[in-house]
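Action item from last week, closing it out:
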Amino acid sequence: RGSSPTMRWLVIVAAVILWLFVVVAAYFWAHKPFDVNIVAGLGRSLVSVAVWVGITWLGTALGRRVAGKALVDEMPALRLALTAGLGLGLLSLLMLGLGLVGLLQPVVAWVAVLGLAMLLRRDLRASLVDLRSEVHSQTPLLPRPVDRFQRWLAVYVAVTLVVTFLIALAPPTAWDALVYHLTGPRLFVEGGQVTHPIDLPYLGFPQLGEMQFTLGMLLVGDGVASLLHFGYGLLGVIIVIGLARRAFGENVVWLSAALLLSVPSVLSLMSRAYVDVVLLFYATVALYAFVRWRELHTQGDTKASKKWLRLMGVFCGFSLGVKYTAIAVPVALGLSVLWTSRHDGLRVVVGRLAQLTAITVAVAVPWLVENWLTTGNPVYPFFFPGIYWDEWRAWWYDRPGTGLAFTAPWRLPIAPLEATILGTEGGDPYDATIGPLLLVAMPLLFVVWWGLKREQRAVGGHLLLFFGLNYALWLFGLARSALLVQTRLLLPVFGVVAVLGAVALDRLTTLRRPELAVDWLARTVVSLTLALLLFSTVTTFLQINPLPVLLGLEARDDYLARRLGVYQLAMEEVNALPSDSRVVFLWEPRSYACQVDCRPDALLDRFLHLTNLYPDADAIAREWEKTGVTHVLLYQGGLEAIIQAGFDPVTPRDLAVLENLRARYLSPIYEWGNIYVLYKLDLTP
């Protein structure tokens, strides 16, 4: 000890180290722990996560720079969520600008991202400081659970988020992602610009979410898209927590988060490359901005309140940039601003509403401009004619007169109950599984209403107005058209419903009596329900089994074949066709996997539209030849399901024309049972 090492010691130490490394290296040379496929699969997953985090962090820094000092009084986690939502929306507008001038190239995307990172390096560091502050804070946004019930809620929230994250890492297989949420970005990347190159009406919808997917594709690939949507789910949970905490106190924080994540469809959507959760976030954060504006307005802080009014307008504009159906968001908040300002004088009220409207329109109008440039209709495919569109297709897409008001009006008052009990994701009716807790909790608010403080009732009234207008719009859609009987269209207000439901359940303590602890009974029911929902979530995860493909133990194509079945096999054969092939799909809307020129049947109306325009099979065949069609992929199983459902007006004449086409002009190349048939178009005598 303390003396210089001797030669004998050096030899012994060298021998020991050599022995350790030689034996271990030799063992793993013979028993390799991983191969190239595992390294590649795990590498793809890690790269997707890194790019997702990078895009989100860049958006956070951009939002921080634009917001300036407006958010200085927010808790660190809330400031991160607010600036991330603001910055990501601005990144979408930046990508739209690049797309309109034809600069959607990987090198341009990387230069833009790295250039912004250099310009925003201080904001990147400041956002990292916020993250550290939240982690080490003595009063974090999510308080430490104080009892067994809250600890169980925390476990539920953590496990569901982890499981959802792992599913989001898997290759995309969800229906709408393959129809248009990813197909649009793929077409933009292939063309290098934002266009409307094929008959895919959904490309006319606002593209705020899809432009972020496009950025992810340009940087590394489609693995980032689902993670971006999952990230919006995380941001949405943070905003819901922040709204609940600010308006009603810490006690409802964990319960509001658990109620939002108790909706199975929210979890499944978070794991997909969709945009529904993007809208949920922006609708909820716009409402949070109103609550902050109202609070500062009441305190007389005019300067700070103006900043929140402007942020409210930006978030309303971003909501409209996700879906047209978000129109109820700015309307509801405008009414709340009007009511709050009712004593401030007509000039002040008009000025505030004008500013809110102007900002909302300014942020939303780029998507209308893009639509006008690419289709000739700023709100394509609604109201006006445009590319690929006519009156027949407008009727087909709308189906007025088929809603519940015309077929079963007695179902309208019980729609929430029906959607809760019978609604199943991927099926009729309502196409969503929303769990029982939102419907259980929401009506209880009226039982405990007068037990709330006066200020809490005031804020709760604005939240109810926000919910009520969105609910009324949803109910109007149900009444008008059977195609709108979808609970997913109401999902943007689920964050607000979760907050109000959490308040109702928490305040059941006011009904406690020696004879019965109603609040304990309610907590027991909620706990058992969450346990069953968690079991269902875990079993779904096991059925999907994404871990093999994430770790490289299963090839991507094998995973897709396992999840998509015969459809994936059909796509592989389509992609094996000559590169100059043009394939028309009949009753199959999913074309994301196509590597040749595919024309999907996005609205399941392609053939019926043709029979409406042309008299017979001869005319249809000649039209196909004229437009360069070489092959036809018929989804026979889809056609039979539509005929059996009896909603779409497939007539005997339509079927006769189809059979005539198959007999005279379509030569089968591949058949997959009675599900898919791939034909070659042949007009030779």
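Closing note: Strands lie at 582-586, 597-599, 631-635, 666-672, 676-681.
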